[in-house]
Specification:
heterodimer; A: 660 residues; alpha/beta; 5-stranded parallel sheet; 18 strands; B: 315 residues; 9-stranded mixed sheet; 12 helices; 9 strands; disordered C terminus
Chain lengths: 660, 315
C-alpha cells in the first residue's frame, strides 16, 4: 500500500501515531542489539580492551534491569540509567565509565539511525494533509535521544513534545498504559487516531482495544536474529543483512538471495581471499578449487581474472571422498569392505557393480535386493576384480590429475570447505606417490575439526574460520552445521563418481539425484548466483553494504557461520527443508533430509533414545536447524528442548568466537 | 627477520600442528629451526618433509641432536644456528593465531627498545589419545601488563614461551638460556631479559598455550603438568642460588623471590577460600559479586596483589 492508500483507508484520522524503531527509524545493522556490537567496537578502539564483551554484557544488563524493575512495578519501563547501573555492576565500571557507556550507546544509535522509507512516506503524506504526528515508543531512552535519532534520520521537525516514550510515562504500549496516555495527550477520540507500527501486540492488539485504527508493516524485522548474538564479529554479516533488508524492502524478502548474498557470499569471498593471501607468500605451481565446494569460489576467481585482477590461473578439479578412497585401494579385506556399503543399506547387484566399477559374479539376480551383510560377502568373493577395478580407477584419476596440472612438480594449493582434510590427505598421498615426491599439496580449508590433527602429518592444512585448536563445544557446533554448509556451498552438478578413460580425456563423470536437482532448481541455484555476485563485490570492495574481505576475518566468518547455522531464522529453516544430502558411495538414492524429520510419535518418544537421536542428528543432518524446526511444533518442542538441555552447546543460541 | 626455535621430542602429531601454526602466519619473513632433541630423526623428517615445501620465502631447518639435552640447551643450539632481528621459542605443542608475528613485529617497530612483545594467551585444554588431539575447552590465560614486570616475575613465571617474541639483541645483553636448568629456564631468562627494556603487552589473544589433560597418553604430557615436583625443586634451587645476589634495597634476590611468591600464593589462596566459602553459602551477595569482579578483571586483582608486595627494587 502506498502512503496515500494507507491514509485514504482511514479518512477520519486527525492524529497519526507512529512507532519509532523499525517503523520510522531503523539502523544500518541487521538487528537492534547489534548497535551494542558497534558500540563495543568503538569503545575498544578508543578506550582499549577494558571494554571487550560489553555488547553482550549490555544485552544481559537490560534483561536484569527489567527483571529487577518488574519486582516492584510490572507496568513501567526501565531507563537507560537503570540498564547502565546493572552493566556497571557486571563490569565493575566506575562512575565515569558508566557515563561513558551511556554516552557511547546514545552516540552509536544516532550514528546508525536512518529513516524507514514507508514510515517516512506516510508521515510526509500525513503532514501534508495537516494531521498531527505523534511518536509513540516502548523504549528505555529519553525523548530527547529519540529526537536526536530522528534528526539524524532526516526528520528535522521532531521535538520532544512530539514523542511519548514508555520510560517517561509509567507504562508500555504493549501493556496498554501508554495508549491511554496517547488519548490524554492528543485530546481526540480514539476513532480519529491511526497508528502505524511493526509489533502485533504493542502496535495492533492494545491500541485496537481502545478503538484506535492500526497499520502494521513488519518488513524491517526480516533481518532480526537471536538478540544474544552480539559482539563486534557479527557486524560483517549484520551490515550485509541490513543492506539486504533495505534492498528487498519493496520487492519482498527472498531467503535465497539473503543466504547467498550473506553467509555464502562471505564463505566464498573468504576462500578466494585466503588463496590470494597465500599466493603472495609462496611460490605455487598450481591452484585447484575442489569440486563441489570450490565451484562458487572458482567462478569468482575467474571473474576477477577476467576483470583484470592479477591472479594466477586456477583449475576446478573434481574429486570426492569415494573416488579417492577407491583409487587408493590395493586390496579388499573384511576390514575395509565396509566402506563400500553402509550398515543399513539394501542394495542390488547392479548397483553394487556401479559402486565398485566392475562386473561381479554372484548367485543373485542383478535386480534382487540383498542386505549389507550379503552385499559385503559378494564383494569379498570378487575381491580380485574389485581391486583390479580400483587400480584402473587409480590410473584414470591420475590421468585426470595430470590434465588438471596437479602432477606438475612444485607446490599446489587445493581449496575445499574441509572438515577433516582426510580426502585431500588421501589425494596428496596418491599424487606424492605418482610424482615421487616432486609435487606437494597444501589444503586451504574453510573449517577443520579435531579429526584433522593426524592428517596434518600427511598434508599441510590450514583452516580459515575454524581450526581444531578450538574447544570441543565449538568443534561439535561445527560438526552440527557441516551438512548445512556443504549444502549451501555447492555446484550446478552432482558428485563425481568416476572418470572416463583416456579416449575421452579422463573426463569426470558426475551424477545427481532427483532431490538434488529439485533443490538446485528451487533454491540452491539462486543462492549460488547471489553468493558469486556478493563474493566478487566483497573481494573487490564494492559490496553495497560497505563490507569488504578485510572485514571477513576468521572470527567474523565463524560468527557468520554460527549466526545462520546455530541460530537460524524460521524462513531459513523452512526454505532449506527441501534439501537432501546424498552421501552414498555411488551417489544414488534419495539421501537424507538436511532438516531432519521428527520421530513419528514425538509425544511418546522414549527419553532413553535421545542420545541415539542426537547422534543421528549431528552426523547425518543439520542438527541446529532440525532442532529449531522441531521447536515450532507443539508435539516436538519438548524433544528440541530436552536435547538442548542435555547437550547445551547445541541449543539454538549464539556463541561468540572464543577469541572474539 | 624472525627466528622461531621449536624444540621437539617424539610428538610428530603435535609437531605437525605447531609447524602449521608457523606456516600460517600472515607475516612471512621467518625462519623455523626445529631442534629434534634426541628423538627419532626419521619421524621428524617425515613431518617436516610434508611441511617443507609450504614455507614460501622462508625456510625450515632441522637440527637433529644425537642425544637428548636439556630444554634450554636445545633452545640455545637452535638460536645459535640462526640469525635474525627477533626470536621466539615455539614449543612443539603450542600454536599461534595467524597474526601473532605480524602484530608483535609491528609493535616492536613502535617500541624498538622493548626486550619482548607478548600477546594475550588462550589456554587450550586438550586430550591426546590414539594419535588424535581432542580439544576439551579453552580459557583466558591470566596475563596483563602488571604480570610482566620484574617485581611480579621475580615471584614466579607468569607466561608460557609461546606468548613472547624477543628482540634478539637481548641475547647479547643478558646472555642465552641457562643450560644447567632442567626446567624453568624460561623464567630465569625472562627475569634477565625484562631488565633490558621491559616487556610490552598486546591484549589480543594471539597465542594458544596447549595443555594435555591427565587422561592423555603420557608421551604427550606437558613438562609442567607431568613434572610438577621437578619444577618446585628447581625453583627452590634457583632461589637459593639468588640468595647471594643483592637487590638495590639490600634484600637478596632469592629473598625477594620467596616474598613475592608467598604474597601471590597467599592472595590466590584467599581468593580460592572466598570462592569456596561463597560456593558453600550459595551466596549471591557481596562476596560472590566481589569474586566475580576479580575473575572478570584479573588485571585489577593482580594489581592488588602487587600492591600488597610493595616492591622496592628499581632498575
Amino acid at each position: 500500500m502506498s502512503a496515500a492508500e494507507v491514509l485514504n483507508a482511514h479518512p477520519n484520522t486527525r492524529v497519526l501515531t507512529v512507532d519509532f524503531f523499525d517503523t520510522m527509524v531503523t539502523r544500518t545493522v541487521a538487528q537492534p542489539t547489534h548497535v551494542f556490537a558497534v558500540m563495543e567496537q568503538s569503545l575498544l578502539q578508543e578506550h582499549g580492551s577494558r571494554w571487550a564483551g560489553v555488547a553482550l554484557a549490555r544485552v544481559q544488563a537490560e534483561h536484569r534491569a527489567r527483571m529487577t524493575a518488574a519486582k516492584t512495578d510490572s507496568l513501567r519501563d526501565i531507563t537507560i540509567e537503570e540498564i547502565a547501573a546493572e552493566l556497571a555492576i557486571a563490569m565493575n565500571l566506575s562512575v565515569a565509565e558508566k557515563l561513558l557507556v551511556i554516552a557511547s550507546e546514545k552516540a552509536t544509535e544516532v550514528s546508525l539511525a536512518k529513516a524507514v522509507p514507508a514510515g517516512a512516506a506516510i508521515i510526509t503524506e500525513a503532514q501534508a494533509r495537516g494531521l498531527r504526528v505523534l511518536i509513540v515508543s516502548d523504549n528505555y531512552m529519553p525523548a530527547s535521544q529519540l529526537v536526536n535519532m530522528a534528526h539524524a534520520a532526516g526528520y528535522s521537525w521532531v521535538t520532544a513534545a512530539d514523542v511519548l516514550v514508555s520510560c517517561e510515562h509509567g507504562g508500555f504500549k504493549h501493556n496498554g498504559v501508554l495508549w491511554k496516555k496517547v488519548l490524554e495527550v492528543t485530546g481526540v477520540p480514539a476513532a480519529q487516531i491511526l497508528h502505524i507500527g511493526d509489533d502485533h501486540e504493542a502496535d495492533h492488539v492494545q491500541p485496537s482495544k481502545l478503538g484506535i485504527a492500526t497499520h502494521i508493516d513488519i518488513r524491517m524485522r526480516h533481518s532480526h536474529r537471536d538478540m544474544h548474538n552480539t559482539c563486534p564479529d557479527v557486524l560483517a554479516l549484520s551490515r550485509i543483512e541490513a543492506t539486504q533488508r533495505d534492498a528487498m524492502y519493496e520487492s519482498g524478502w527472498d531467503v535465497a538471495t539473503a543466504l547467498g548474498d550473506g553467509l555464502v557470499g562471505m564463505v566464498v569471498a573468504a576462500q578466494v581471499a585466503d588463496v590470494m593471501s597465500v599466493v603472495k607468500q609462496r611460490d605455487v605451481a598450481g591452484i585447484h578449487f575442489a569440486a563441489r565446494d570450490g565451484w562458487l569460489a572458482h567462478q569468482v576467481w575467474n571473474k576477477l581474472r577476467d576483470g583484470g585482477v592479477s591472479l594466477p590461473p586456477a583449475s576446478y578439479t573434481a574429486f570426492s571422498r569415494s573416488v579417492i578412497w577407491r583409487a587408493s585401494l590395493t586390496e579388499l579385506t573384511p576390514e575395509n569392505v565396509g566402506r563400500f556399503i553402509g550398515e543399513d543399506e539394501v542394495l542390488t547387484i547392479s548397483r553394487l557393480e556401479r559402486r565398485v566399477g566392475c562386473q561381479l559374479s554372484s548367485l543373485y539376480r542383478p535386480d534382487e535386493e540383498i542386505d549389507a551383510q550379503l552385499a559385503r560377502a559378494v564383494l569379498l568373493e570378487n575381491d580380485k576384480q574389485v581391486a583390479a577395478a580400483a587400480q584402473q580407477l587409480r590410473a584414470r584419476v591420475l590421468g585426470y590429475f595430470e590434465q588438471q596440472g596437479l602432477l606438475k612438480p612444485g607446490h599446489h594449493i587445493v581449496v575445499d570447505l574441509g572438515w577433516t582434510g582426510s580426502t585431500i590427505a588421501d589425494m596428496a598421498v596418491l599424487i606424492n606417490e605418482a610424482t615421487n615426491g616432486a609435487t606437494t599439496i597444501e589444503a586451504r580449508l574453510t573449517g577443520m575439526y579435531w579429526d584433522a590433527t593426524p592428517n596434518r602429518m600427511r598434508v599441510s592444512m590450514h583452516g580459515y574460520a575454524m581450526t581444531e585448536f578450538e574447544s570441543l563445544d565449538n568443534n561439535l557446533r561445527l560438526l552440527g552445521v557441516i551438512k548445512l554448509l556443504e549444502a549451501l556451498v555447492t555446484a550446478p552438478h552432482g558428485s563425481v563418481v568416476d572418470f572416463a578413460d583416456a579416449s575421452q580425456n579422463f573426463q569426470p563423470i558426475f551424477v545427481e539425484t532427483t532431490p538434488e536437482l529439485i533443490a538446485y532448481e528451487k533454491l540452491m541455484g539462486r543462492i549460488g548466483e547471489a553468493a558469486m555476485t556478493s563474493a566478487h563485490a566483497l573481494v573487490q570492495g564494492t559490496h553495497s553494504s560497505g563490507v569488504s574481505v578485510a572485514d571477513i576475518t576468521s572470527t567474523a566468518l565463524w560468527a557468520a557461520i554460527l549466526q545462520v547455522g546455530q541460530s537460524p531464522r524460521r524462513d531459513e529453516v523452512e526454505a532449506l527443508s527441501i534439501v537432501r544430502h546424498v552421501t552414498s558411495i555411488d551417489h544414488e538414492g534419495d539421501g537424507t533430509p538436511l532438516v531432519a524429520s521428527p520421530p513419528s510419535s514425538p509425544k511418546s518418544f522414549p527419553q532413553q533414545q535421545l542420545p541415539d537421536l542426537y547422534n543421528s542428528l549431528i552426523h547425518g543432518h543439520w542438527l541446529q536447524g532440525s532442532l529449531r524446526s522441531w521447536s515450532y511444533g507443539d508435539d516436538t518442542r519438548w524433544i528440541a528442548d530436552e536435547i538442548g538441555n542435555r547437550w547445551p552447546f547445541m541449543k539454538s543460541q549464539w556463541v561468540s568466537s572464543p577469541l572474539a | 627477520m624472525v627466528a622461531i626455535v621449536m624444540r621437539t621430542y617424539e610428538r610428530p602429531v603435535l609437531l605437525a600442528r605447531a609447524i602449521a601454526s608457523v606456516q600460517n602466519q600472515t607475516f612471512s619473513d621467518w625462519e623455523l629451526i626445529i631442534v629434534n632433541n634426541g628423538g627419532d630423526p626419521a619421524g621428524v623428517e617425515r613431518v617436516v618433509s610434508v611441511a617443507r615445501n609450504t614455507t614460501g620465502t622462508s625456510a625450515i631447518t632441522v637440527l637433529h641432536l644425537p642425544d637428548r639435552v636439556g630444554m634450554e640447551e636445545a633452545s640455545n643450539q637452535g638460536l645459535r644456528a640462526s640469525t635474525s632481528q627477533y626470536f621466539a621459542i615455539h614449543d612443539d605443542d603450542d600454536s599461534w593465531r595467524p597474526t601473532f608475528l605480524s602484530a608483535a613485529v609491528r609493535e616492536f617497530a613502535a617500541q624498538p627498545a622493548a626486550a619482548a612483545v607478548l600477546t594475550g594467551v588462550t589456554r587450550v585444554h586438550e586430550t591426546f589419545k590414539g594419535g588424535k588431539v581432542w580439544p576439551e575447552k579453552h580459557e583466558n590465560f591470566p596475563l596483563d601488563d602488571s604480570r610482566l614486570t620484574y617485581d611480579r616475575l621475580i615471584g614466579g613465571n607468569t607466561f608460557p614461551p609461546i606468548a613472547a617474541l624477543f628482540r634478539r639483541s637481548v641475547l647479547d645483553s643478558v646472555g642465552y638460556f641457562d643450560s644447567s636448568l632442567p626446567v624453568l629456564g624460561d623464567w630465569e631468562f625472562n627475569l634477565r631479559a625484562v631488565r633490558d627494556g621491559g616487556f610490552v603487552f598486546l591484549p589480543e589473544r594471539l597465542a594458544n598455550y596447549h595443555t594435555r589433560t591427565p587422561e592423555s597418553d603420557r608421551a604427550a604430557g606437558n613438562s609442567i603438568t607431568v613434572g610438577e615436583d621437578l619444577h618446585l625443586r628447581v625453583k627452590k634451587e634457583l632461589q637459593e642460588r639468588w640468595d647471594t645476589e643483592m637487590e638495590s634495597d639490600g634484600v637478596s634476590k632469592g629473598q625477594r623471590s620467596r616474598e613475592v611468591e608467598a604474597e601471590v600464593a597467599a592472595a590466590e589462596a584467599r581468593l580460592r577460600a572466598e570462592i569456596a566459602a561463597a560456593q558453600r553459602a550459595g551466596s549471591q551477595g557481596r562476596t560472590l559479586r566481589r569474586i566475580a569482579r576479580a575473575v572478570r578483571h584479573p588485571r585489577r586483582t593482580v594489581r592488588a596483589v602487587v600492591r600488597i608486595v610493595r616492591p622496592t627494587a628499581k632498575w
